[in-house]
Amino acid sequence: MGRYTGPSCKQCRREGTKLFLKGTKCFTEKCPVERRPYAPGQHGQSQARRRKASEYAKQLREKQKIKRIYGVSEVQFRNTFERVSSLPGITGHNLLAALESRLDNLVYRMGFAASRKAARQLIRHRHVEVNAKSVDIPSYLVQPGEEMRVRMKSREQVSVQAAMDQSSRGASLSWLAVDRETFSGRMLERPQRASIPIAAQEQLVVELYSK
Q1: Structure pTM?
Q2: CA-based nearest residue to 123, from 100, 190, 112
Q3: CA 71, 75, 81 angle in degrees (round to 5)?
Q4: How many Å apart are CA 66 and CA 138, to the nearest integer?
Q5: pLDDT level of residue 164 (50, 70, 90 thresholds)
Q6: Closest to 104 (Cα-Cα) out of 90, 114, 89, 91
Q7: What are 54's strand-pairing partners?
Q8: Band of residue 120 on the pLDDT scale cut at 50, 70, 90
Q9: Which residues, at least 6 apart from 1, have a Cβ–Cβ distance to it below 8 Å?
């Protein structure tokens, strides 16, 4: 199955919470999640009144929510889970740390793009460098100590400037250093769960894949 190309707000409404897929637009009063707090479709309102969701349904919805937040496909998400499942530590925490270490996520966290989707576009068009080398793979896993920056010729782009003016996401992350003057940043250490700003119950995903 290809990448979802429909309205981003439908994904937020399906999960019943803001996933911040459209950057600063999610903070406006016109956000559909606030105006229509039920699942999309003609049966959305009636589904909200049905019986309590099963444990499997809760696990599935949590997996879908995390997958949609980071904008990864089902195959990418499953491969990431399988890769971190053999690592020491808590598997759920390792999963989120791996997703946070993706280049597209870090470009977004540093404030150089208004959303992860916009960050992927910047990367694919070779506007981002890692350790002074052009990288066009959004799923590239950044290692602690590596430096990321927007190319000199790309810093005047309207989208980059607008994201920089409106964002302060990277300022409060202890594991991420951002230099707005040079349009660069560095991952200082592997992110820990307490410092990952995402409201998710990752243990439900572990239980889902462990069946």
Answers
A1: 0.79
A2: 112
A3: 85
A4: 17
A5: confident
A6: 114
A7: none
A8: very high
A9: 73, 74
